[in-house]
């Protein structure tokens, strides 16, 4: 396997397969996210057909580079990656072939913070992860609900993890906008609560990310992509009703406490559809944040998405798969 650079952490996990399948190894990128449950479950859903190596990334940007370079074959990836790549131009190095989540970026506040309405945030100090989906979700949701961002005191953090959680715990900040399971971690440890504000109530329907494949791998392995699409669709449909496999998969691979994972699953939506028009809206939000100078044309973003495998796996027309939504 090629070396995976850019500060990623490597985790290998191989299923036990009969000899006939030993030569088919799929390299899968994932992040420390509970909403990566469907892609993590591929090792169970397609056991006996393929062998898997799972590669853990700290950021979508690192997973995107590895996927484009062919260091991995498929990966969980945020839709913001497609927007910024389309803005850069050039030939797409990957395509999204199935959705995976909406929401999964949440607001958590200290138990002594009195946040019942969006306007209450103007009296709080909010920790926000800068330059990525968490800040985009926060800015857009706050604006959509009529609150002036300039009236909210914000403290920026470059990455999630102990510094952000410690700041909430010691009162340096009173709320934080962060993705799961970091939000649930504060709640499970007893110093955070979810206020009745949903950051997914934004202009782009809270679309977060899906599963993408390296462009060459997509062309060369259509049978696997179709099988993976069906497995991810099935997982997104069944996991919320019976969380046993979902929890077992993420607790094992992510190494997070069971209680944290359970809380996290209650505050996100698994969704296999690709809401193409909402991604154009997301692109405008990315431009508003200043990550890119202007939203790329819809046609440029189109090149990073395919509905071929969703249609084959579900038997549904593109109109039912989110292309017009």
Describe the structure.
The protein is an alpha/beta fold. It folds into two domains: 9-102 and 207-320, Periplasmic binding protein-like II (D-Maltodextrin-Binding Protein, domain 2), CATH 3.40.190.10; 105-193, D-Maltodextrin-Binding Protein, domain 2 (3-Layer(aba) Sandwich). The chain contains 14 helices and twelve strands. It has a seven-stranded mixed β-sheet. Helix 5 links the parallel strand 7 and strand 8 (153-157). The radius of gyration is 19 Å and the shape is globular.
Instruction: Note the beta-strand portion.
Output: 15-25%
Strand order of the largest sheet: 1-3-2-4-11-5-12
CATH topology call of the largest domain:
D-Maltodextrin-Binding Protein, domain 2
Distance from N terminus to C terminus (CA atoms, Å) equals: 39 Å
Rg estimate, integer Å: 19 Å
Q: Give the SSE string.
A: EEHHEHEHEEEHEHEHEEHHHHEHHH
How many domains make up the coordinates?
2
What CATH architecture of the largest domain do you see?
A: 3-Layer(aba) Sandwich
| Biggest pleated sheet | 7 strands, mixed
Secondary structure tally, helices: 14
